[in-house]
Design a protein that fits this description.
The protein is of the alpha+beta class. Helices cover 20% and strands 19% of the residues. The chain has one domain. Strands 1-2-3-4 form a four-stranded antiparallel sheet. The relative contact order is 0.19.
Length: 94
Amino acid sequence: MTSSLAARDVPSLQKKEYGMVEVPPPPATASWQKSRTSGDPSANCVEVTSTQGRVWVRDSKNPLGPALGLTGEGWSVFLAGVQRDEFTRSGASV
């Protein structure tokens, strides 16, 4: 079974400070989707699925690794940040 990032052992302080909570990981049968624009299988890409009232995000190259579970509101905030290009480091190529 894969573990979610939120379900990993997180120190109590982080739980309190960042609002992290333990949630069950997505089921192994979850249907993951990769971006249509990601044609190269070795490209840096993420996959998403929606289940258990959460949107899950994982590294496409590490499907057995951790998955980040976001609430619907958290997913909306994340997408808005992507659209505003908030996550591109200056000088970094994407």
